[in-house]
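EI: anyone free to look at a 268-residue chain?
SC: sure, send it
EI:
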Amino acid sequence: MIAPRSQESRRPLRLTFRTVNIHTCRYVDRHGKKRRLGKAREEMTVVKRRLRDPDRTRERLLQAAFHEVHRSSFQSVGINRILAATNVTKGALYHHFDSKEALGYAVVDEIIAKLVRDTWLHPLLGDGHPIDILIGVVQGLPSRPADVRQSCPLLNLAQEMSSLDEQFRKRLEKVFLAWQQGIAALLRKGQSQGTVRRDRNPDEVASFLVALIEGHTSLAKNAQDPRIFEVGIRNIVEWLETLRAPRQSRKGGRRMSKTRVVRQRQRF
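SC: here you go
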């Protein structure tokens, strides 16, 4: 949305017609150019829609707020910085969001929650061995210097706002819980298929995995060193490998270890 035009620029345009065909609504302007009234109306309608698209304006505000908060913090970001990034008026912002806090809540609900869904929850619904799926997602997490410097937006806001604003805390908790529940559901599926160890609690494993990832993210951000995150990912992958169910024999029974075989032979 752009700023309103001045009073002088709002004066109606004058069209000088030389000839007008009342049946086709065609006319020849003062420059001798043939035009059609219907076409002019269509063009003006398209321009108005582009200038006054409330959904697009709201999305621009959300994206700008997310990037500014991710770059620094929610408390340090001012409304004017978001307006400057979007070229939107303050009145338009408050038309969509009652306050800066309401804008922040929407960032969590609509932007950060979607990031978790796209990065984690949707891939977890794929086919394959549950542990292979988890390892693939973990190894695909970004570890570039820029990613380490700005860190995880969910983690950043949780550390900054959970103790200051209850609405922020509840919304962030909802995102964390959805993340953990998605992992736990995949592990339960693997347990029912016999591909994941059944002596592990899926909910506890899921929360532990999230804690491992966010913990190494925090350590890497503090040190500003991507290698710390990369080492953490390697260790997480090794731990995930231990969650695979014991290998099954071709007859369907559990494969016995060499020690157990020797003991059984000694009995006879």
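EI: The chain has three domains: 16-51, 54-97, 101-241.
SC: 👍
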